[in-house]
């Protein structure tokens, strides 16, 4: 039986530098780790000197904008999750000034059993203007969103993200545990509509997995990959890979670069899932099977042969999608939903 300390490692790419971040690496459908990829960043060097130095470095760029904070009582040991009844969450959200957050984090360092506090995914250019002039990575033509996470010990439940993600640890340590998308059924995912932070999460407590309640989680662990990152290290997490993230030191800073491989005019596929829940799931089994054939034919297995028998000028939505067609389809759907 695999335990969390006995999982397969994520592939490490030896000697990779930021200039070596090729399109091939940044479009892979499997994860990889690059040790020391950001080792020369001033932020990383400040973090290696300690939490105080890391906070002082960050505050050089702070211009007073309010940030969003998450806080949880010490009894939850940094695990951000639902409450016992699953009708609310076990943490609080509040706006705050970053310098005040850092003061509170410094106070928590002196406590033997501190509560958890962190600033969630925050756009760097808004919160810390000028930071990326000294601490950044060139991702080519990708329109990547750079965000930052700052706080003390925390555990973020396994979840997936739609964009590809280059996650860079620049202070503290973080352990990432990843699962390929096909492990969905073995992760015991919670509600789709009510989630702690936007994405559906695994209900399994990775620190104390209940294998009687979640027996298929053993299969998930057999297919998991893990790594513990130090300052300067980075992990590439492909879109739709489930990832559980545990920050383990008194002050941790993570920087994410997020980007999609699809055009900006495309909406989130989750919208299609919600439509299917409303319009397909309750159909008789034979009809669901028929619609599965439609989706396979027109979506999942589609290629040029799917519409080769139709004149090009008559393809409409079956042809190559562009911003104009996407807008027209969206308007059509909105009109139908209003009926």
Q: Care to give the gist of this entry?
A:
This protein is of the alpha+beta class and 339 residues long. It is 25% helix and 23% strand. Helix 2 runs antiparallel to helix 3 (51-59) and helix 3 packs antiparallel against helix 4 (98-109).
Largest sheet: 8 strands, antiparallel
CATH level 4 superfamily of the largest domain: Jelly Rolls
The helix content, as a percent range, equals 10-25%
> What is the terminal separation in angstroms?
53 Å
| Order of neighbouring strands in the sheet with most strands | 2-12-9-14-7-6-3-5
- Number of helices in the DSSP assignment: 9
CATH architecture of the largest domain: Sandwich
Helix and strand sequence: EHEHHEEEHEHEEEEHEEEEHHH
Domain JmjC: 117-276
Pfam family, one: Cupin_8
Protein name: Cupin
InterPro entries: Cupin_8 (IPR041667), JmjC_dom (IPR003347), RmlC-like_jellyroll (IPR014710)
List keywords for this structure.
339 residues; 6-stranded mixed sheet; alpha+beta; Jelly Rolls; 23% strand
Structure description:
The chain is α+β, with helices and mostly antiparallel strands and 339 residues long. The strands form two sheets. The chain has an eight-stranded antiparallel beta sheet. A six-stranded mixed beta sheet has the order 1-11-10-13-8-4. Helix 2 (42-48) runs antiparallel to helix 3 and helix 3 packs antiparallel against helix 4 (98-109). The chain is built from nine helices and 14 strands. The protein is globular. The mean pLDDT is 94. Helix content is 25%, strand content 23%. The protein has two domains: 4-259, Jelly Rolls (Sandwich); 269-337, no CATH class. InterPro entries: Cupin_8 (IPR041667), JmjC_dom (IPR003347), RmlC-like_jellyroll (IPR014710). Residues 117-276 form the JmjC domain. It holds the Pfam family Cupin_8. It comes from Paraferrimonas sedimenticola. This is Cupin.
């Amino acid at each position: 039986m695999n335990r969390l300390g006995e999982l397969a490692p994520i592939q490490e790419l030896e000697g990779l530098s930021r200039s070596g971040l090729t399109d091939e690496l940044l479009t892979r459908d499997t994860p990889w780790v690059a040790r020391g990829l950001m080792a020369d960043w001033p932020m990383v060097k400040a973090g290696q000197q300690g939490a105080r130095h890391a906070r002082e470095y960050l505050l050089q760029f702070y211009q007073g904008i309010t940030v969003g904070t998450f806080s949880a009582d010490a009894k939850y040991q940094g695990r951000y999750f639902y409450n016992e009844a699953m009708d609310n969450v076990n943490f609080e959200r509040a706006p705050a000034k970053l310098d005040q957050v850092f003061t509170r984090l410094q106070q928590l360092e002196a406590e033997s059993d501190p509560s958890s506090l962190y600033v969630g995914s925050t756009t760097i250019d808004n919160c810390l203007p000028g930071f990326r002039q000294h601490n950044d990575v060139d991702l080519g033509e990708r329109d990547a969103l750079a965000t930052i996470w700052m706080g003390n010990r925390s555990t973020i439940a396994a979840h997936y993200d739609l964009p590809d993600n280059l996650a860079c640890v620049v202070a503290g340590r973080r352990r990432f545990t990843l699962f390929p998308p096909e492990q969905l059924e073995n992760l015991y995912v919670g509600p789709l509509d009510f989630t702690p932070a936007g994405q559906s999460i695994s209900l399994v407590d990775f620190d104390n997995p209940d294998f009687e309640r979640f027996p298929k989680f053993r299969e998930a662990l057999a297919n998991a990959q893990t790594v513990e990152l130090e300052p300067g290290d980075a992990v590439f997490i492909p879109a739709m890979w489930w990832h559980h993230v545990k920050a383990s030191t008194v002050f941790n800073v993570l920087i994410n670069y997020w980007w999609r491989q699809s055009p900006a005019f495309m909406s989130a596929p989750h919208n299609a899932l919600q439509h299917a829940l409303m319009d397909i799931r309750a159909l008789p089994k034979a009809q669901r099977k028929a619609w599965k054939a439609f989706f396979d034919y027109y979506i999942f297995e589609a290629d040029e042969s799917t519409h080769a028998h139709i004149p090009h000028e008559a393809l409409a939505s079956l042809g190559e999608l562009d911003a104009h067609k996407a807008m027209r389809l969206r308007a059509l759907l909105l009109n139908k939903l209003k009926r």
